[in-house]
Amino acid sequence: MNAFETVLYDKQDGVACITLNRPQKLNAYNMRMRDELYEVLGAIRDDPEVRVAVLKAAGEKAFCAGADLSEFLTAPSPIVARQVRWERDVWGRFLGVPQPIIAAVHGFVLGSGIEMALCCDIRIASDDAQFGLPETQLGIIPAAGGTQTLPRVIGRGKALEMLLTGSRLDSRQALYLGLVNAVVSRPELLPAAEKMARTIASYDPRAVRAVKEAVVRGLDLPLADGIKLESQLSANVQCARRLDK
Ligand code: COA
Question: What CATH number labels 7-201?
C-alpha cells in the first residue's frame, strides 16, 4: 500500500493497525486524512487476511481533536464540499467494514475523533481521555454520524446534553455511560487493544464476521427479523465449516 502522510498502516498475524498520524496537530481530521482513511478502510475490507483492525493515534495528547479547523469552511463551495463527501464517504466505509474494529483512544477525543471511535465496534480508552462534541458551539452540527451514533450508544438524553452544551466526559464517565468498553492506564492502552485483537483474530473469521453482521444489522431490525437474520448467518457459518471437512 502507498506511503501515507496522515495515517500509518500495518498488518501482522491477521491484525490490521491504523494509526492517525498528525500528532503535531493533535491528529485533527483533514481532507488528506479523509482520503487516506478511505483507502485504508477499503483495503482492510477487501483483505481476507485481516481478521480484526485496531484504530489508534500517534502522540501523547490526543486521539483526534476533531475536524481540522484551518480547513473549516474553506471548500470552494457547499456543492463542491458535498460532492467530495459523496465521493469519499469515509463514514459509510467505516461502517461497512465486515471485520471488527477496536478503537484505542487517549487524550482529546473531540468532534470527528469521537465520531470515528463511534464508527468502531469496541472502544478502549486510557484514563486521560476526554470526550466531547464542540460542533454546536461552533455553529455547525456533527457530520460524521455523531448525532446518530452517539444516542444509539449512550442514549438520547446524555447524547443531547453533550451535543447541545458541548460538555465533555472524562473516561470514568464514558465507561459509566457505556461509551467505552474499558478504561486502562495510558501505558496499558495499546497492549490491551492488541490483546483483545489477537484473541478475536484467533477465532474462525467467518464466525467473527457473522457475529458482527448479526449484531450491527440486527440493531436496525425488529427483533423477529433480527432472529431470522441470526438463523441465516448461523446456517451459513455451519455450512462453510462442514465444507472444510
Ligand atoms: N484543527 C486544526 N488544528 C488543531 C486542532 C483542530 N481541530 N486542534 C488542535 N490543533 C492544533 C493547534 O492549532 C496547535 O497547532 P500549532 O502548534 O501549529 O499552533 C496544535 O494542534 C496543538 O494544539 P493546542 O491548542 O496548542 O493544544 P492545547 O493542549 O492548548 O489545547 C485543545 C488542546 C484540544 C483544547 C485545543 O487544541 C482545541 O480546542 N482544539 C480545537 C477542538 C475543536 O473545536 N475541534 C473541532 C471540532 S468540529
Answer: 3.90.226.10
User: Does residue 134 have its Cβ closer than 6 Å to ligand 1?
Assistant: yes
The residue whose CA is least distant from atom 15 of ligand 1 is 25
Listed by start position, the domains of the chain span: 7-201, 205-244
pLDDT tens for 31-52 read: 899 999 999 999 999 999 999 9
Q: Cell numbers of 64, please?
A: 483526534
Distance CA 128, CA 197 (A): 22
Q: Which residue among 25, 30, 150 is best mutated to probe the pocket of ligand 1, counting the most ligand atoms within 8 A of its Cβ?
A: 25
- In angstroms, the CA 99 to CA 19 distance is 17
pLDDT at 9: 97
- Whether 135 is a known active-site residue: answer yes
- Predicted TM-score (pTM) of the model is 0.95
